[in-house]
Design brief:
Shape: rod-shaped
Radius of gyration: 31 Å
Structural class: alpha+beta
Distance between the termini: 110 Å
Order of helices and strands: EEEEHHH
Oligomer: single chain
Strand order of the largest sheet: 1-2
Number of helices: 3
Length: 130
C-alpha cells in the first residue's frame, strides 16, 4: 500500500507498517563525493530534503614560506572570479602571491648579489693594474 501524501518522500511498507523517508540528491551528480555533502532538513509539509553544504575555503598562502597572506579574502573560486582585482591583490611587487617579508628578502638578496658582482669587478680591475 502506497500512501498518497507525497509519492517522493513517504512510502509505507505493507509488511512492517513502517514509514520510509527516501531522500535523493537534488543535483545531477549521484555519488557521495565532497561536492555532495549535505544536511537533512524537514520542510513544513513534513517532506525530508537535502540542503547542500558549501565547501570550506582555503586561505591563500605565500609561495615561499607558505604562511597565510593577509589582505586577500578566503573565498571559493567562483566568488573570487566576481571580485575586482583591487580586492584580490596587494599593491606591491608579487602582491597576492608572496608575503611582505619574502618580497623584502628577495629585494635585499638581489641587491647584495649585484653589490658582490661590483666588488668582484673592482678587485679584478685592481689586480690587473698591479
Amino acid at each position: 500500500v502506497v500512501s498518497t501524501q507525497s509519492t517522493e518522500a513517504v512510502v509505507s511498507t505493507q509488511s512492517t507498517g513502517m514509514v520510509l523517508n527516501r531522500v535523493t540528491y537534488r543535483r545531477r551528480l549521484s555519488y557521495n563525493t565532497k561536492a555532495t555533502r549535505h544536511n537533512s532538513r524537514k520542510l513544513q509539509g513534513g517532506k525530508l530534503v537535502y540542503h547542500y553544504a558549501t565547501k570550506k575555503t582555503q586561505v591563500h598562502k605565500c609561495g615561499d614560506c607558505k604562511l597565510a597572506l593577509r589582505g586577500i579574502p578566503a573565498v571559493r573560486p567562483v566568488k573570487l572570479a566576481s571580485l575586482s582585482k583591487r580586492v584580490k591583490t596587494v599593491n606591491r611587487a608579487y602582491g597576492g602571491t608572496k608575503c611582505g617579508k619574502c618580497v623584502r628578502s628577495r629585494i635585499i638578496r638581489a641587491f647584495l648579489i649585484e653589490e658582490q658582482k661590483i666588488v668582484a669587478k673592482v678587485l679584478k680591475a685592481q689586480a690587473s693594474k698591479k
